[in-house]
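Bench log. Compound arrived from synthesis this morning; before running ITC I wanted a structural hypothesis for how adenosine-5'-triphosphate sits in the protein. Inputs:
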Amino acid sequence: MDIFRVLSRGASLKKSKDYKSDFTAPDKEKSTNELKKEKELEIEVDKELDFFHSKQHKLVKEIEVEKDDDNEDDESKEENGEENEDSTKKQKLAKITTKEEAIKLRIHHGSKVTGYDIPLPIGSFEDLISRFKLSKVLLQNLIHNNFNDPTAIQSEAIPCSLFGRDLIACAPTGSGKTLAFLIPLVQNIINSNKKISKDDKKLKGLIISPTKELAQQINNQLIKLTENLNINSGYLNKSLASKFRSKNVKSNKFDVIVTTPLRLIDLIKNETIDLSTVEYLVFDEADSLFQSDFLEQTDSILSSLTNTKLIKSIFSATITSHVEELAHGIMTDPIRVIIGLKEAANSSIEQKIIYCGDEHGKLVAIRDIIQNGGFKPPVIIFLQSIDRAKALFNELLYDGLNVDVIHAERTQKQREDAINRFKTGELWCLITTDVLARGIDFKGINLVINYDVPNSSQAYVHRIGRTGRAGRAGRAITFYTKEDTDMIKNVINVMRASGQTDGMPEWMRDETALSKLSKDRKRKLKREQLERGKISTVPKAFKKRKFRKV
Ligand SMILES: Nc1ncnc2c1ncn2[C@@H]1O[C@H](COP(=O)(O)OP(=O)(O)OP(=O)(O)O)[C@@H](O)[C@H]1O
């Protein structure tokens, strides 16, 4: 790619009146062919230099301009299935049209796609316009939110769901799985709504998430994506659930509902929600929803979804073979998309483990990181229980750190406040339990500290996945003590699979150095909480003034 040709063009600041604002020569001096080539080159260069896809591509800008010029007309052409000839020409770029191109893209992305009759991936969001008549308003909403190019999982998952296929999708943390299920869901709803009158609208989409924070985050993303599309989505929080229970709200008020399992089951039991019209079902963080503590609830939701046309998708960064087996049991000919390695963490996270001996050693280690400049905010610290999260919070508060704590015993308001302060940078460090380990998208977290070793390799992948998101770099440090001899093996396995052996002591790098955990032992570790010593170095009398009840 001739990057320098384009970058050096217009380097002279002498600007005659014949020259355009970007200092390029006037168009009349160039042939149409030259101009076309130059435009294509600019788009390519834009893409090559725009590592985090933060710039709007010219191609897309042009589609937007056309749209703005003739908004209504375009939409009606779209409805009639007509296409604007000019924009079709422009859309020729970044298309995947052959199996060979698909193979190349899949090698580049590290994607493995299996199943019967697999559709070609997409090379760009614009590709969706010609192949699936993607709504231009939806494309505009993507661009306005700076989603310019599809990530690997989006390239594969979106066409599968638009073709109405059941889907098992596994891709690294922070790689854009949310949009991978929201874009086709929204487009499918746009298509269905075109065929009916406003009064006949019915609830069509259901998204299940294991935590309230994640459900709310998904709904926020959905609201941004559906701007000007006349699509109603609702996060089933306490207040909305009570409106359903008192029959002040009916299912057909919404096109999509995002919820945690228990809230929904409560309404199913009271027969105040009608799920028989739902056509698209997504289980986000599916492996957690298919684990024994959630399985009964998941099953009961599934039995209320009676529409024979129901399309099901499951998404997670960690999908075990047991979960896949369960998924196959409820799906029809699903397509399986795996991005990267199933057992690995996101490759942009630098992982390290630190041996601390005992509990006292952990406090010494964290203070050492703080004092030696390794604690670059924003930082998230994970602990195994609410009591331990509270105890560490009071220790670090005593040290004068700008810190807060989130756990299941804090009120929804306190949790939301802390999250907002953390997001705006007012708060530097958030201490939490596994309640925030999955799906939560804090932008630009620099460091995740596992103060307590997570109890499974999946929990480890999700916790450290709060950093290193959307192409950014991140760091993860895990403390371990003599009590963690078995538990740390889960972490070591993920580090090995992710090529991060530099972050472990040299003697551990040899694969034969540590005996493997049996399946039984892994299961036991997941179920039981390790007994740990108290977190405290400062006598209570000294702490009194700063001690806060949390
Ligand atoms: N196509 C895109 N271009 C640029 N940024 C994107 C794109 N798709 C998603 N993102 C951004 O990437 C970040 C991570 O996305 P998302 O939360 O969907 O990740 P995820 O794969 O679901 O992660 P997790 O497994 O932790 O739930 C978000 O901030 C999102 O806005």
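What the model suggests: The chain has a mean pLDDT of 83. Residues 53, 147, 149-151, 154, 171, 173-179, 317, 439, 441, 443, 465, 469-470 surround adenosine-5'-triphosphate (CB under 6 Å).
ITC booked for Thursday regardless.
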